[in-house]
Amino acid sequence: MNHTNKLNDGRKVGILGGTFNPIHSGHINIAKSALEECNLDEIWFIPNGCPPHKNVDDKVSAISRYKMVANTIANEDKFYINDIELSSIEYNYTHKTLEKLHNKFPNNKYYFIMGEDSLRCFDSWRKPEVICKYASIIVAIRSNNANSLSKLISEYAIRFNGEFILLNCDYIDISSTELRNTISKDNLYNTSNIEETTVSYISEHMLYEEYDYSSFNSIEDIKTDLVNILKPKRYNHTLGVMDTAINLGMRYDIPLYLCQYAGLLHDCAKSFTKEELISFCEDKNIEITDSEYKAPHLLHCKVGAYIARNKYNVTDERIINSILFHTTGRPNMSLLEQVVFVADYIEPNRCKANRLNEIRAMAYYDIDIATAMILQDTISYLTDIDAFIDDKTNKTYEYYLELIND
Ligand code: DGI
Ligand code: FE
Ligand code: FE
């Protein structure tokens, strides 16, 4: 990842700030044009933080916006990300950000990039003369507006003692608001304007979606039911998984109610005996694989998913899948599936497995590594006791091993 560091001093640096909610091809194109047309050495992307006293739409956290930018520019060698605004808990006025950057990297020459709409109200920004002291201004404009803006620019140049550079960009009209609306309404990712890595971040973290879980039985009702069905130890484990899944959900920035339902319901069929699991599946026409015949306890996943859907009215497929794959995992799990898989192993009531503390700490550092560790230990435990190992468990291990070694 390209974070700015002290090697990034003594350069001509374009600064592109914004909420990046989400980052899209308009941002990238402006950055590329500025780089080329203005002969810059680098572009620094500076996502806004989450300032106080401002109506931010905090459905999408600053961390997620920052990560989307970081992922999107990861393979561009002249693009860097800087967290100066993310890590500040005060309102980030541009003049302050530029002053801080100047103090930190005194040998750089900065070019602050703005759109023509911002230029039109530049005189109402805080301390425009200070902005102009620390940076030249690159104004991204629609090409047919060049003439009408040149007068304003000459005026500002004198008034604020600054340098203004016009940059013809006809792609400044892509709107993050429109992209968000498209995503929330149709679940349709306009992939031509959003980079693939951003699309997968958005879908993994379920950003910009409207949630409706009003038809699900309430958490309290489900708890009341489960406390009667499950043995006390199993019920406590269930609550532990629910809370841990919520914690991991906070860490990885996914909707908490999904973690809560999935955690609470993951073992809802755990009271069934092997024979009951098999006859339940036969009765409901749920397919039983050869390995499930060999290790019928694996069926508590399929039966649990069925009960979650049909008894507790939890119809969200993402929750259903995280119940279905909570024991074996599967290659390329969704983040929610991984959260439940890992929470099941590390929840605080668990005490028997090896290196639990290592895996617990790792779960909050890198969930892919934690997933691989859990599978490694599970496979080694099953091998020791000579148990039949489902192909999915092995495939999942291979997948995550390769992923983390990449
Ligand atoms: O239901 P829990 O006990 O909370 O946890 P779980 O659903 O992950 O089940 C854990 C058990 O399942 C544990 O003893 C390991 C075992 N397991 C995981 N993958 C396989 C497996 N057992 C067999 N036979 N084959 C597998 O592939
Ligand atoms: Fe289980
Ligand atoms: Fe469990």
Annotation keywords:
alpha/beta; Hypothetical protein af1432; six-stranded parallel sheet; binds fe (iii) ion; 406 residues; 19 helices; binds 2'-deoxyguanosine-5'-diphosphate
**Amount of helix:** 40-55%
Q: Which class do the helix and strand fractions yield?
A: alpha/beta
Radius of gyration (CA) equals 26 Å
CATH domain topology of the largest domain: Rossmann fold
Bound molecules: 2'-deoxyguanosine-5'-diphosphate, fe (iii) ion
First-to-last CA distance: 14 Å
Query: Number of helix segments?
Result: 19
SSE sequence, one letter per element: EHEHEHEHHEHEHHHHHHHHHHHHH
Instruction: Please state roughly what percent of the residues sit in beta strands, choosing from under 5%, 5-15%, 15-25%, 25-35%, 35-45% or over 45%.
Output: 5-15%
The CATH level-2 architecture of the largest domain is identified as 3-Layer(aba) Sandwich
Largest beta-sheet details: 6 strands, parallel
CATH superfamily of the largest domain: HUPs
Number of domains: 2
Mean pLDDT: 93
Structure description:
The protein has 2 domains: 6-205, 3-Layer(aba) Sandwich (Rossmann fold), CATH 3.40.50.620; 219-405, Orthogonal Bundle (Hypothetical protein af1432), CATH 1.10.3210.10. It has a 6-stranded parallel β-sheet, sandwiched between helices. By secondary structure, it is α/β, with parallel strands linked by helices. α11 packs across α15. 38% of the residues are buried. It contains 19 helices and 6 strands. The chain is elongated, with a radius of gyration of 26 Å. Helices cover 53% and strands 9% of the residues. The structure holds 2'-deoxyguanosine-5'-diphosphate and fe (iii) ion (2 copies). The site of one fe (iii) ion (FE) has 5 residues, from α10.
